[in-house]
Amino acid sequence: MAADTYLAPPLPTAALRGPVAQADRLQNLDMLRGVALLGILMMNIPYFALPERSTDGFRHDLHSANFWTYAVIEVLFEGKMRALFSMIFGAGIVLFVLRKERAGLPVAGLFYRRMGWLVLFGLLHAHLLLWEGDILYFYGIGGMLAFLFRKLPAKYLALGVPLVAVLGFAASTLFFQHVRTVRFGYVAAQAAQRRHQPLMATQKEQVAEWQTMEKDHLPDPAQVAEHTRQMKSNYAGVAERIRRPTWDSQTKYLFFTIPDALALMLLGIALFKWGFFTGQWSRAQYLKTAIWGYAVGLPLVLLSFYLYYQRGTGAAAQIAYIETHAVAWAGLIYPVQRIALVLAHSSVLLLLHQAGVWQGLTRRLAAVGQMAFTNYIMQTVFCTLIFFGYGLNYYADLQYYQLYFVVAGIWAVQLIISPIWLKYFLFGPLEWLWRSLTYWQVQPMRRFQGAISPAVPVAGALAAEPAM
């Protein structure tokens, strides 16, 4: 579909004032959201389970199961699942707005209340459940910004991705060069001290700044051991380790996180308007997109992986790279290969959905996606109780490849439990809470006898609210 405006079919009047009815959901959106949510766990679990720099020991061992597991994850999934989830979130913004506008409800008020609660949930998720990789906080803020651009033509919304990629590369280059300046200042200061020369004030500042950078980004073995001890201790010890860097990412480094999430949400809105996510493209269009996506993305991501492989591992190799490269040109590859591959992956999934292949699995994935908020938090609860010291205390005890047996187990639980839950209830428990808070009214929870099954797709129907 080349049109910039998605013309949605009429919605049942009775359904317009409340949360989306089951019959009004787009199953392919829920399915894609479910895939993205399960895929995100593959990226997150090393941060739940392993100390810093834990991949250094195997990233050059071609005979290691850890290496090949890491390689597959990095090449095919790293960044792509989060990108897909962000894009679906953007599409959900349009769906939410469409229903409220047609019902004559105060769209902005409801939407910003919804995002405000999401920001609060993100803070609780990060600082109460102690997950440093929370995305709810950033999605709440990014969603507030994306809402302002929702009416732009799709072609302009899609331009946000290359614009943010270029600006992001420029910003990261400036930061990288600042790091080099600090590093060279530190080296010069060390040389001056060896000659017993007094340090100038700027040199003292650079020494202190470099030592802080090393502590935060290149921890030595003693620091890694201390962090591991904290993660294997009680709740207070884990909180001490998690909360400060998490708060830094939510405040000091917010500028570096929001543009990427915002650009992907805007791309999701554009793809929704073009009919990509709603299944309106022909099989030939989806197939062509998949072929071009893999043709562009796979060579680039393999090149990127090889370039990072060549850098070496360990703090010494990273410092040597900083000292010998003025610009990290390989960073330009990432945004191109990520978007190419996420579009290719999505096209394949939508082709399979159109063809009716693996319908049982598709229905389960859609149920996982419909309960994305609950399942996302559930993943955190499972992982913290398995790996952190106040749970089963498996932190730093499993090898990298073994983590994905845990991932498979959590996937199985969510693929089984989600459709069973939705057989009896309209929403996941956290979706119900979020909707009740959004409308400031307790929403119905139990499914009435004879209600439409979550497995039933409705042609042309709309999923008016994002599951997360």
UniProtKB/TrEMBL annotation:
The chain crosses the membrane at residues 31-50, 81-98, 156-176, 253-277, 289-309, 329-352, 373-395, 401-426. InterPro entries: Bact_Transport_Assoc (IPR052529), DUF418 (IPR007349). The keyword Membrane applies. PANTHER family: INNER MEMBRANE PROTEIN. The keyword Glycoprotein does not apply. It holds the Pfam family DUF418. Keywords: Membrane, Transmembrane, Transmembrane helix. It comes from Hymenobacter coccineus. This is DUF418 domain-containing protein. Residues 271-441 form the DUF418 domain. It comes from the Bacteria.
